Amino acid sequence: MTNNNWLPPIRLFSQQETAWNYIQDDITREVWYGWGAWWWKSVLGSLWLATEIATKPWSTRAIGRSELKKIKLSTLITFKQILKDVWFSEDSYKYDDIKSQLTFKNWCRVVLIDLAENPSDPEFDRLWSSEYTWAFIDEAQEISDKAKQILSSRLRNLTGKQYFYSKSKEECEEWIKKNKKWVINEIPKLWEHQVVQWVQKIPKMLMTCNPWRNFIYTDFYKLREKKDLPPHRAFVQSLPTSNPFLPEAYIENLKNLDEVSKQRLLYGNFHYTDDQAYLFTIDTVDEFFQREKTPTDWTFYLTVDAARQWKDITIITLWENCHITDIQIIKKATLTTQAQIIQPIIDKYYIPISNVIVDEVWVGGWLVDLLGCKWFIGNQSAINPYESKILHYKKRNYQNLKVQSFFYLQRYLPKISIYPNCPYKEQLKEELLFIKQKDLDTDGKIQLESKKDMKAALGRSPDYADAMSFRMYYFIKAHSEWIVDKELAPDKSQAEIDDENLLKFLESPDDTWNPDSEENNEQDDLLDIYD
Q1: What b-and-e string marks burial along 139-169, b requiring 16 or more CB atoms within 10 Å of the CB?
Q2: What is the DSSP letter of 74?
Q3: What domains does the chain contain, in order, with CATH numbers?
Q4: From CA 457, how far away is CA 313, in angstroms rounded?
Q5: I want to staple 303 with a disulfide (CB 3.0 to 4.6 A). Which of 25, 45, 180, 470 is the partner?
Q6: pTM exceeds 0.70
Q7: 303: which residues sit within 8 A by CB, 6+ positions away?
């Protein structure tokens, strides 16, 4: 028997054994395990730590989670139970709640680490002074990619023999003589193999998780789906149905959950989430891609998310009313070249220059000047609809125009379609599913997560979704322009103007914002929730 193959008598089902083999090999550095409910993730992580402690003295392990409180109330309880199950005696370790660590008689330590993002420590400097042999991150979907990367950088290749012989040989022999029975008396061969001679070839990190839209998607799920996961990473999916020790009644309870919870917890479907802050659901987005083109009035629009020659890409989206008929990408081209590419598109489809809109932020302003088109200024104030001048509670409380445009996109996506063979569907799908409202439960202006946070979660800037949202500017403006202004009717009283506005509002056509429309009333009620 070798130390690496030693395993306490705890039953593991197939998926756990697969993950265990990855943990023990000399190739895999990051092992992901999970993706459904009741798959005993903490049990696997705790068993791994207990095994390492029993066989590798003078080592330091880490248990990480988004909050220290969650570790103490959940993961730590499981870990202590596993220690008991594999015959660790009560006096074989001490737990210090203040230092948040367990210290064992063979000079092993297990440190509990808070991996939450902290505004006072955005770079996780608190981790830089520590070194760990291996790490176990429980519920990894709750932490950021930066937290995971920083902790990973603190893992070291360590050799037990090197640590052991830092003392004299006589001291070591005396220690073995006194302590060889401190744990697991049932396995005398453990000490016959001189466990102090252990060697760790590569650092290891075990992470357990539920489906979530962050770096887990971009770095693991997406690559796994494409069968392009790098050799140093492994993912083992375990669902409730994979656990033979799970009561049948529990499976039946999962089947009776709402559709989102059932998809996530029973089937491990990544694209479903119970986080209400996300603007778009997987069902809505899938319907958008599958929707057939409806007859239009042949009104064309062009939306452009511009970029400079040396940075990012320029995305050109051609619309036939609410149908995306083409998406073109310009890579590393000057603004003059971009204008020369865009102008023939405008000419070909007879697009009114007022129906061409470019993101004005940074470089887009120069492209606006070259084309003479409209500009989209995302950080300008939100535009209130027409009725807000009469019904003041209808004012939109969005942080800016960009936020407003995405909420309008949420409203109009069920009416939007896209050409069947679009090569950028996957990028659009990912970006739409990552659009998320910030601070959903707090008062104040409605906000979205910052582009910086989006880049961190998605791994890139959401440029395709941005270009798509610019089309909403025309709907927003249409809702704001059904107005008889005082300047245009100086001979009328304000009361007369308000009466005309109200009449115009009530008689507004179906393709704008008709309050008599049942569908629009439902949509308006939904928007009022956010306002």
Answers
A1: bbbbbbeebbebbbebbeebebeebbeeeee
A2: I
A3: 12-252 (3.40.50.300), 290-486 (3.30.420.240)
A4: 19
A5: 470
A6: no
A7: 316, 317, 319, 357, 358, 376, 467, 468, 470, 471
